[in-house]
Write a structure and sequence with these properties.
single chain; mainly beta; SH3 type barrels; two-stranded antiparallel ribbon; 1 helix; 4% helix; Spore_coat_GerQ; Spore gernimation protein GerQ
Length: 138
C-alpha cells in the first residue's frame, strides 16, 4: 500500500453572487493522487512513492518465504501463546495468511496477536524515503 504524505491546503472563500463562486475561490483541478503545495498550486510530475515502514509492508516485501510467527492470546484458558510456521502468502493491515507447504492448509493470523516473526533467510527491507531505495515493483 502506497500512502501519500498529508499535504494541508488552505483555500480562500469568496462571496457567492448569482449562484457562481467568486474568482479565486474554486480550487484547481488535481489529478487523482496528485500533489499540491500549501499555497494551492498543483505540483506537476510524479513524486517518488515510498512504502512506509509498517509490519504489513515489510511482510509483503517477503511473500513466499517460510516464517515462524509467535502469537499471544490473552485470557485463553487452553493456550496463551502459540507458534505457527508456514509460507507467507499475504499480509494486510490486520492479518497474515500463511500456508503449510506439506498439506496446503492455509491459516489466517490476526496482527493484533502477533508478537514477532522469524525467517531463516535474509529479508527484503527498504527503509522508506531513503535515496537509492526505490519502491519494489511486482
Amino acid at each position: 500500500m502506497i500512502m501519500q504524505p498529508y499535504r494541508p491546503v488552505t483555500y480562500s472563500y469568496g462571496s457567492m453572487s448569482s449562484g457562481t463562486p467568486a474568482t479565486g475561490s474554486v480550487p484547481p483541478q488535481v489529478a487523482s493522487g496528485g500533489a499540491m503545495t500549501p499555497t494551492g498550486a498543483v505540483v506537476s510530475g510524479a513524486l517518488p512513492a515510498y512504502e512506509q515502514s509498517y509490519i504489513e509492508n515489510i511482510l509483503r516485501l517477503n511473500l513466499g518465504k517460510v516464517g515462524t510467527f509467535y502469537m499471544t492470546y490473552e485470557n485463553n484458558s487452553e493456550w496463551n501463546a502459540k507458534v505457527f510456521k508456514g509460507v507467507l502468502e499475504a499480509a494486510g493491515r490486520d492479518h497474515i495468511i500463511i500456508s503449510d507447504p506439506t498439506t496446503g492448509q492455509r491459516t489466517i493470523l490476526l496482527m493484533v496477536n502477533l508478537d514477532y516473526a522469524t525467517f531463516d533467510q535474509p529479508l527484503v527491507y527498504q527503509y522508506p524515503g531513503v535515496i537509492g531505495a526505490p519502491p519494489v515493483t511486482r
